[in-house]
Amino acid sequence: MAGTFSMDGAVLWFRPRFAFAAGTSYAWITRQPPARPALLLTRPAPARAATTVVTGIYPTTARLPVNVLRFYLHFSAPMSEGFAATAVQLRDGESGETLAAAILPMEPELWDPGRRRLTLLLDPGRIKRGLAPHTEAGYPLTSGRRVILGVDPAFPDATGTALAAMAVREYAVGSAIRQRVSPDHWRIGHPVRRTRRPVRVHFDRPMDHALVHRCLTIADTAGRRVTGRSTVPAGERDWIFTPAADWADEQYLLLVRPQLEDIAGNSVTRVFDRDLTNPSHDPRPPSTIRLTLTSQNPPR
After folding, report:
1. Cβ-Cβ contacts under 8 Å for 194 (sequence gap 6 or more)
2. Can you tell me the distance from the alpha carbon of 281 to that of 21, in angstroms, rounded to the nearest whole number?
3. Residue 15 Rama label (left phi>0; alpha psi -120 to 50; beta)
4. How far is it, in rounded angstroms, from Cα 190 to Cα 271?
5. Which of 209, 169, 182, 188 is CA-nearest to residue 253?
6. Going by C-beta distance under 8 Å and a sequence separation of 6 or more, which residues neighbour residue 279?
7. Per-residue pLDDT tens for 209-236?
8. Strand locations in 47-124, DSSP E?
9. CA distance linking residue 32 with residue 41, whole number of Å
10. What is the side-by-side strand order in the sheet with 88-92?
11. Confidence at residue 35, expressed as pLDDT on a 0 to 100 scale
12. Which is it for strands 251-256 and 289-294: parallel, antiparallel or unpaired?
């Protein structure tokens, strides 16, 4: 262990470079003769009440496509890294058996900077047709069956304390989604001038919860972003934007960044599980889509 030794009279002090970890034992070893037995030093872990919980499992839609690409876990406090492989499992809804190798092992794990959101990827090699993992093992999920995503309470938070409770979400698994994301298939509301009524965008399929918040914005015709609050209700089929100030008597733009994806990884520019023989699956150059929103009078 890195650190420095110093003498204070007959007392030998050791100052570690990094603090001793709670709940960890350390061996004190004398290397020079006369040989001495090793001493075991233990810093006890303080007793802490379990308060950290899973605040969200995404997608929240009740039905997944068989080629769903990722899940998100949200926690109420920062978490420890390196435990996701054992603490998070996908199980068959009928048999209860763990779906072997369904979740792709990640080193390092995909945490946000605050370690409150964990991204779990299903094995892309098993999702993309034509690749050896798909040919040998098939999709991680099975269409027509139920699947359960569970988070074991033994998952430690950043203090080393277990979660307060187990968290689970159950899904039905349906057919694959293999189409590029297209606003042509959305129902898009318009601003109501001199009000703060929200604008709602209804998608034709469940979208990626995290990417919707990042990839949809409303701007004025000069390109200035409209400030406000956006929400994605359960099911990930809608984006609702409420402005911070009244809508003006003018046109606005709904900006759709090309990184926007549905829950199967299909984006505005490409199909994730692409059919190379289908010209409609050919990738498109990445560019922001600009849709005109015309402010309307309040209904009488």
Report:
1. 246, 247, 249, 298
2. 52
3. beta
4. 29
5. 188
6. none
7. 999 999 999 999 888 999 999 999 999 9
8. 54-58, 63-65, 70-75, 88-92, 110-111, 117-121
9. 20
10. 63-65, 167-174, 146-151, 88-92
11. 56
12. antiparallel
3-state secondary structure of 202: strand
DSSP code of residue 62: S
Residue 99 pLDDT class (50, 70, 90 cuts): very high
Q: Which residues pair with 94 in a beta bridge?
A: none
Between residues 15 and 146, the one the model is more confident about: 146
Specify the amino acid at residue 98: T
pLDDT band at 36 (very low <50, low <70, confident <90, very high): low
Q: Give the single-character DSSP code of 296.
A: B
DSSP secondary structure string for all residues of 146-176: EEEEEE-TT--BTTSPPPSS-EEEEEEEE--
Tokens 């994301």 belong to residue: 181
Nearest-angstrom CA–CA distance, 65 and 178: 10
Domains of the chain (ranges plus CATH)? 54-174 (2.60.40.1220), 183-294 (2.60.40.1220)
**DSSP-derived 3-state class of residue 259:** coil
Query: 60 — phi, psi (to 5°)?
Result: -100, -5
Bridge partners, residue 118, by sequence: 73, 111
Contact between 190 and 160 under an 8 Å Cβ cutoff? The reply is no
Among 164-168, 195-199, 274-278, the least confident range: 274-278
Helix (H, G, I), strand (E, B) or coil at 183: helix
Question: Is the separation of the CB atoms in 223 and 254 below 8 Å?
Answer: no
> Structure tokens of 188?
């898009």
Left (φ > 0), alpha (ψ -120 to 50) or beta: where does 3 sit? left
